[in-house]
């Protein structure tokens, strides 16, 4: 098992410039406004409880003083994307890897590699919720097993359609829980309000067969039964699923299947993403 310490770096919070903090504040202010009526209650409560917001780039040491007592999760700084096995090992130890860099002002609306705004503003609020905290740890442990069984593609799809791009059924209607949506102004509106994408009930086996797009807004969003209904990752059930799925074809990003629970069937007329 890889040594997770090899990938952790100091955040060096004092080295962020005034411009860096300004980029954060502008991103955070815009997302807070957009998410007020669109993110799950737990997400919004997490932002407030951890005070992730308006004062500039969070200092991980301070953030962790609030987060660790809640769920045992801590945020650690990493240089960028870490190798899969190291990523899974970190999650299995309740360490959430966050890039320490922030996008430049000219990258305000779009960056390719996740930066500290995506990683912290998008992901960390839900780490205050026990159901999500448990799910993400289980995901890391499942990833380490999947790596040994050649099923990493299934795990990557699961992460994509749950942690990054899930919606949830709530008493107020569909709400955003995925970090990839919650950190993107364009997709925050698109994921809930556009008539283009499909919105389909979350099914673990179905999701792990579904290919995804990394270059545009999603063609399909999967909907959890509630904001705390993260899938349970029983290893015996997962390995049985992977075995059964070995002979099955992948599902395309926009395909609808006979057994799907359809919330909305997309028109597929998609404006080009930002
Ligand atoms: N590293 N820092 C970082 N963040 C990620 O989201 C990430 C990663 N390495 C690998 C990875 N994600 C994916 O391969 C997994 O979702 C499967
Ligand atoms: Fe992410």
Q: Main traits of this protein?
A:
binds fe (iii) ion, 43% helix, five-stranded mixed sheet, two-stranded parallel ribbon, alpha/beta, 274 residues, Phenylalanine Hydroxylase
What's a concise summary of this model?
The chain contains eleven helices and seven strands. With 274 residues, the chain is an alpha/beta fold. 41% of the residues are buried.
Query: What ligand molecules are bound, each kind once?
Result: 7,8-dihydrobiopterin, fe (iii) ion
The tally of strands reads: 7
Unreliable residue runs: none
Domain module tally:
1
Structural shape: globular
| Strand line-up of the largest beta sheet | 4-3-6-5-7
Break the fold down into its secondary structure elements and pairings:
Elements: H1 18-35, H2 41-49, H3 60-71, E1 74-78, H4 84-92, E2 95-99, H5 116-123, H6 130-149, H7 152-164, E3 167-170, E4 173-176, H8 179-182, H9 185-193, E5 198-201, H10 204-208, E6 220-224, H11 235-245, E7 262-264
Parallel strand pairs: 1-2, 3-6, 5-6
Antiparallel strand pairs: 3-4, 5-7
Helix pairs in contact: 4-6, 6-7
The structure holds 7,8-dihydrobiopterin and fe (iii) ion.
The site of fe (iii) ion (FE) has 6 residues, from helix 5 and helix 8.
């Amino acid at each position: 098992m890889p040594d997770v310490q090899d990938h952790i770096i100091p955040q060096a919070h004092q080295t962020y410039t005034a411009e860096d903090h300004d980029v954060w504040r502008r991103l955070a202010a815009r997302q807070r406004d957009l998410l007020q009526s669109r993110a799950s209650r737990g997400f919004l409560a997490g932002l407030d409880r951890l005070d992730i917001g308006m004062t500039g780039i969070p200092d991980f040491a301070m953030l962790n003083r609030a987060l660790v007592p809640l769920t045992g999760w801590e945020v650690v700084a990493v240089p960028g994307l870490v190798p899969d096995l190291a990523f899974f090992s970190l999650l299995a130890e309740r360490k959430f890897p966050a890039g320490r860099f922030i996008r430049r002002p000219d990258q305000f609306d779009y960056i390719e590699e996740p930066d500290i705004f995506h990683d912290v503003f998008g992901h960390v609020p839900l780490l205050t919720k026990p159901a999500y905290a448990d799910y993400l740890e289980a995901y890391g442990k499942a990833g380490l097993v999947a790596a040994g069984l050649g099923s990493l593609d299934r795990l990557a799809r699961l992460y994509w359609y749950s942690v990054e791009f899930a919606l949830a059924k709530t008493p107020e209607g569909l709400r955003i829980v995925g970090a990839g949506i919650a950190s993107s102004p364009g997709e925050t509106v698109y994921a809930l309000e556009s008539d283009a994408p499909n919105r389909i009930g979350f099914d673990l086996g179905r999701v792990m067969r579904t290919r995804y797009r990394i270059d545009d807004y999603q063609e399909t969003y999967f909907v959890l039964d509630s904001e705390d209904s993260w899938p349970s990752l029983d290893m015996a059930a997962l390995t049985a699923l992977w075995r059964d799925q070995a002979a099955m074809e992948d599902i395309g990003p926009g395909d609808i299947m006979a057994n799907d629970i359809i919330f909305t069937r997309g028109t597929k007329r998609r404006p080009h993403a930002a």
